[in-house]
Amino acid sequence: MLNFRQIEAFRAVMLSGSMTQAARELHTTQPSISRVIAQLEKRVGLRLFERAAGKLAPTREGEIFFRDVERAFTGLRGLEQSAATLGRRGAGHLRLSAVPSFSLALVPEAMQAFSLKFPDVTISLHVTDSVSVCQSVAAGQTDLGVASDVVSSPGIGYQVADLARAVCIVPAGHRLARGRKPLRPDDLAGEPFVSLSPQESITQKIDAVFAAGGDKRRLVHQSHFSAAICQMVALGMGISIANPSVARSFGHLPIVQRAFEPEILFPTYLVHQPGAPASLLAQEFSAVFVQVAAALSRP
Question: What residues does the HTH lysR-type domain cover (predicted)?
């Protein structure tokens, strides 16, 4: 079998045109290079160089063999670059999955900030519900997930990337759109209310807050999709309690955010596989995402 030392010596001789110069470049002696070339010729069964009057010239077979060697070295250089990329920031592609509400603004803004640091890295984003986000991460189909809720499963791990204080969103022009004091459950008495789906854990927290004072809301609509809720509020179909970073995604709609008390915290989860170490890319994106999420959830 050919070894790297033989190929390296042959290439050095071809590029320099001299065994003496090749020996200098490889920090060895001319007799050593001559011996390695002889071993290579014996191994491949070809005469690679002609030696006449103290000069060295490649044979036709040597020139053809050199082209193949150069292609191999090009591949090796590609491997070196790939290894360098892995060492700096992991592989060159990151697979994300996220729920729709975070995919409209929060995740894209984090992607933008990440791409400024790592412009050569590509990202694919799969948009789905929280359960499917967790399932795709557990199955290894995505590297990192962004969810508003997590399911209990041995196949996933997660961190709380952000806890955003809930706001009340009301149609522009509504009586509750004016004022600076935080709204309270009693202020929403008799108002049509658009709720998140009852299966969401955050819905249970919201309902508990209103139930503590005797729930006087008039529940009219519900959806698991925050974008739909914001659109319904903009159309005057009701008011709602929302994650401020999500509501901010719909600043173009005629809705107003009002502070709300008592405190309700909307969590944002980063989902990952618990058993395997996260790639450098996933670690870097997680750090960027936490910063962006914190900035967007500030009042």
Answer: 2-59
